[in-house]
Amino acid sequence: MVFAQTPDRAAIQAQVAKRHDTAVKALQDWIALPSIAAEDRNAAQGAEYMAKLAREAGFQKVEIVDTGGKPGVFATLDAGAPTTVGVYYMYDVKQFDPAEWSSPPLEARLVDRPGLGKVIMGRGATNQKGPEMAFLTALHAIRDAKQKMPVNLVLVAEGEEEIGSPNIEKLVLRPDVQAALKKSIGVFMPMGLQDPDGAVTVNLGAKGVVELELVADGKAWGRGPSKDVHSSLKAMVDSPAWRLVKALDTLVSEDGNTIAVDGFPKPAPLTAEQRAQIARSVAARDEATARKSLGVPHWIDDLSWEQANERLVSQPTMNIQGLVGGYTGPGGKTILPHRAVAKIDMRLVPPMTRDGAVQALKAHLKQRGYGDIAVNVSGGYDPTATDANAKLIQAQIAVLQRNGIEPLLWPRLAGSYPGFVFTQPPLSLPAGHFGLGHGGGAHAPDEFFLIESTHPKVQGFDGAVMSYVDYLYELGGSGGGSTAAK
Amino acid sequence: MVFAQTPDRAAIQAQVAKRHDTAVKALQDWIALPSIAAEDRNAAQGAEYMAKLAREAGFQKVEIVDTGGKPGVFATLDAGAPTTVGVYYMYDVKQFDPAEWSSPPLEARLVDRPGLGKVIMGRGATNQKGPEMAFLTALHAIRDAKQKMPVNLVLVAEGEEEIGSPNIEKLVLRPDVQAALKKSIGVFMPMGLQDPDGAVTVNLGAKGVVELELVADGKAWGRGPSKDVHSSLKAMVDSPAWRLVKALDTLVSEDGNTIAVDGFPKPAPLTAEQRAQIARSVAARDEATARKSLGVPHWIDDLSWEQANERLVSQPTMNIQGLVGGYTGPGGKTILPHRAVAKIDMRLVPPMTRDGAVQALKAHLKQRGYGDIAVNVSGGYDPTATDANAKLIQAQIAVLQRNGIEPLLWPRLAGSYPGFVFTQPPLSLPAGHFGLGHGGGAHAPDEFFLIESTHPKVQGFDGAVMSYVDYLYELGGSGGGSTAAK
């Protein structure tokens, strides 16, 4: 592997190796404390722990920020450097059901994963504590090697990413936080970007998202029952559950794939450059592997792999996450439920906005006679986009290329993260993700992050740490040369 | 209160009073053993207990019958009488959630209920163990008073009533059971028929029912995912949850109230006599009380009280009991579920049949392009009807009138019970419900059955027992006189 301008890189790498066990143990301890906003679990403890990790890694000022929701963390590391870099963290994780896991999700055991090596398995391992711990370990290692930090850092960490970041603006746009970030060249989030074959995709943005519940309720409707009644009464009593079905039916096309909400904002078409990026990426990725891993025999409309990916990048979505109404246990129960709920997420692409999408949905329901159906938005945000020419992105490409990786550019993640708060006014900064290493199972059982790789092109934990070391020096202006070290 | 021809009625009544505490304790013990078919709970124990209760009450032959599902019980009491009467029991009860109860549902505590008196509160108290225990107590009391049983009895008890009696024919139509029942003048089920004001309705039939799940599943569909995947993939992956919504949408009218299944069997219109029965009953019942107790501000289509009741009696229904798909916990979870389920019940009126309704539903789904959606029928049966002139019914009317109650006749219960197995060929017997006494909360929390009544027109447990004593003597041919005893 080829590295360039990081000064005394070998000394830092030695500190990373020396710190390996300590860092893995720290990651295990962190996974053992799951903060889950959706379940109101461990928010205060999670923020305290996040603050402690930041202090220990060298941030001189660390503050827990009241957001009205789960607390955030704001921290600065002043290295007296000319360049300042923003870092976005989440300390919360997704819900989990231990019964579905092959290894206890809070024990973060090291287990062998064939073809990859030794992984740490636990909730949050890759989304996002593993990569985040690797980045903090980079700061420790630079200090332990008695090197000067090449950039100043501004860290913002939230505890509500997994519920759609409902209060991210209260954290990021607080005047002093905003002022600190405004000095930065952009904001990045640590992430293990390597595919199982070592390839890396650099994302230039992400879709926006809105999470919401549609609730049909007898009381709000003024028809049907205000409590569950015997199902035989259906002959004389209206049904909120049927009302929900009828309202849902109006939201999408017959095949369920196109949003049919009246006046819903329209997406901008892909540019030629975006199409070219997709074509290049798709050529490098195996369709059969993707279909098999998802258990999907056909894409929507039997689209080709490239067409399906163009749709993935370019189209907004209206998805049912869950349906909950009435009796949900085993077998049946003869009730007419008074209430039924659809859990929905919408994904948005520029120039659509969260508020525009929600307003259109509400107006549509009202116009179609379903004004009584509650639209309870629990979180969400606008899409985000960053220019490929930004230094934040160009530094990623440079570090990857010096690692022997020719990154693929990807126009827009289909998943979402609240990058909008950085890329939109008032901050208007570049934003992205970075990091070597590999993980899987985000939002699913057996989530993992690779610790010791058996694949020569895929970095384990220490390699991920070094990717952050190199990135920081690159961002600080020390990179770009050609002095190579294997 | 006026009673007639029951010989030595006072002696029997004395035995009922003497047995009161024993009988109530026996009911409490029975409630403490809930058999719940939907949860696969206590079927074998429930059948054993049912058999024990029958033996103790004087049935000479008692047999547990393998039905392929939960076991049934077949018992005969040969009194050497010219008349034989069939009795239908269920020993299973509905599911319950103790958190929703004001008194532990298996403890069957005696609690005061204002306006009614002392009630026994527990799962199964009124549906159906309370009335069933009262009937068994009548048999004990006749024996304890050294009286001759006026009729022979044939008892069939099932453990799957609450899941739609999927194996009732395997019990009732087994050749020897069928032969025993064939000798009877009809079959009745013990039931506390009194309203809180003492009024009694004699039902001449019941709707049929089908309970089923409609399941949309990626694997069966051959589209969408075969496991839950990240919701961002909605842009390129079909959604079984949306497919379920679209299929459901085709099943009912826009208001959710009329079945729109192509070729669905049609109900027979009400006869003039049935309309008259409804009009008489409706005049005697208070609409405001009914609407308040159900929490229903308007009936379907703003129908009048009488029109709503005509609809209740005459119209088939398609009801959503529950919707379950994907993530059903608190908040949201960004998944695209691979599977979604609607729990449905359909209620049927003559001449519709269970098989006809299921076939039409399946054909409709196939015709509309939803042939992949599974129709998993878990139970159900045809509607049932009995002629008002049958001795089984006329004896009820006679006993009620001698109790000072002018019963209202009701064409058809909107709820369901598997009377079809008795009223249709090969048995073609009258079937119905009978019993004084009062209960409430069937299928709901705080289910109860009245034990000690404070209302002069409503019978407590001992009065319910005596109503069965009188009914048996009436059926045996001893009734009908006018010798009155207060």
Automatic annotation (TrEMBL), chains A, B:
Metal-binding keyword on record: yes
UniProtKB keywords: Hydrolase, Metal-binding, Protease
Domain of life of the native organism: Bacteria
The name this protein goes by in its record: M20/M25/M40 family metallo-hydrolase
Domain called Peptidase M20 dimerisation: residue spans: 226-369
Residue ranges the record marks as coiled coil: none
